[in-house]
């Protein structure tokens, strides 16, 4: 055991400095791209950029025009400016859907990340049948959502479903999980974690595999506990992958239509109606394309802001 404080030893280990090493942090070896090479790379990427713009620009522009008209699925309607956005933002139903979307996304992102990271740490060691277990744990992500939603409906939807029957046998009153607003929200959020944690598990497994085990050995020699290793080494060393997975999962959650619609269709009484479900119902059930597309544009704006914030964290983690 050395006399070096544990916190300093962990910091040294994260920088790749062994026990008794010099402690000098590695210098940033990144160099700028030469101007000629930069022009060549730009010319190589330019055709792909032009193709993506051609494929996406027209739908986005057309949808933007629709969001400023009072038309339906057949007629474009008259130009009304930002009235649809004002109408949407003044609708209590929009804010109710926005609130559930935030809850659904937070639980989906951090719940699946916590479960995925925990399983990734567990399977990092020598576990008998670890390879087969990883394949089995991927099934919730691989199986089509319609199959998973049908299975969960069978488990909880009716009084004859297994979970309500078990709850009644334990002495509880008859519980209809998808008929009560609060329990329906809980079931939908748990279902999202269930189908999403394999993705997080794979992301975290890849991140943990890139971490040199020698840094943990150095920290253990200097007296760092498992919690200190996890807090000061595992989390910082996997931060880039963590932030990237959060960006992707946030997009998945906010835009997740089938998970909610197949399980509850936004009910009961709109308790599980997310913004994407509300946009769908506004356009295809109420035939109001303007407000529906306006909701979609507001969702896109929020996702862009969240992605930019988290991407800055990715860059900062790369520098650290």
From TrEMBL:
Major localization class: membrane
Ranges in coiled-coil conformation: none
Signal peptide range: none
Membrane topology: Multi-pass membrane protein
Compositionally biased region (Polar residues): 1-10
TM ranges: 40-61, 100-123, 135-155, 175-195, 243-263, 292-311
Region (Disordered): 1-30
Family: Belongs to the binding-protein-dependent transport system permease family.
Location(s), subcellular: Cell membrane
Tagged with keyword Lyase: no
Name this polypeptide is given: Transporter
Alphabetical UniProt keywords: Cell membrane, Membrane, Transmembrane, Transmembrane helix, Transport
Keyword Transport: yes
